[in-house]
Amino acid sequence: MAKKEHYTNLESMYAAAPVNSIYEPVMEVSEGQATIEIELSEKYHHSAGGVHGSVYFKMLDDAAFFAANSLEEQFFVLTTSFTTYITRPVSSGKMKAIGKVVNRNKSQFIAESVVYDSEGREIGRGNGVFVRGKFLLADSAGYA
Questions:
Q1: How confident is the model at residue 81 (pLDDT cuts 50, 70, 90)?
Q2: C-alpha to C-alpha distances, 96 to 1, 35, 74, nearest whole angstrom
Q3: Using an 8 Å Cβ cutoff, are 124 and 114 in contact?
Q4: Cα separation of 129 and 65, whole Å?
Q5: What phi-psi label fits residue 64: left (phi over 0), alpha (psi between -120 and 50 degrees) or beta?
Q6: Which CATH number goes with the domain that contains 96?
Q7: 126, 112 contact by CB (below 8 A)
Q8: pTM surpassing 0.70?
Q9: What would the DSSP string read from start to end of 40-62?
Q10: Letter string b/e over residues 33-45, b meaning 16 or more CB atoms within 10 A of that residue's CB
Q11: pLDDT of residue 1
């Protein structure tokens, strides 16, 4: 399979995930990198009017995860750990997360991600460890 086809299949798989009907993200995958954007609305707010931390986590983890899976063409990767840092509150506009693989070996991928607000300011960052699972990508909803 060509790499571009693998990236397109990952993008389709992401769009097909039921959880993404809540967030309606748009993702682009390339070699060792993934970019995700969502348009913010009040449905993502906590009681004080800012975006809930779960949205930061989801974007950061997803961007890092798909950066890792861009380098694995057969199996669905799994997040084994992920650390999230929320550095600035946001309540409106768009959030854009960019994930990149920074290290890989036979058993794991280490990826970092940064999320930005509409003005390009960093509002959060994270890093995680991902491993190859046993579930075939070809059997994933939306892949292929």
A1: very high
A2: 29, 7, 27
A3: yes
A4: 9
A5: alpha
A6: 3.10.129.10
A7: yes
A8: yes
A9: --GGGB-TTSSB-HHHHHHHHHH
A10: bbbbbbebeeebe
A11: 78
SS (H, E, C) 90-115: CCCCEEEEEEEEEEECCCCEEEEEEE
Phi and psi at 69, nearest 5°, equal -70, -20
Residue 14, pLDDT > 90, answer yes
Q: Is 76 helix (H, G, I), strand (E, B) or coil?
A: strand
The domain of 56 spans: 3-139
Total domain count for the chain? 1
Q: What is the pLDDT of residues 34-62, one digit of tens each?
A: 999 999 999 999 999 999 999 999 999 99
Q: Is residue 16 part of a domain?
A: yes
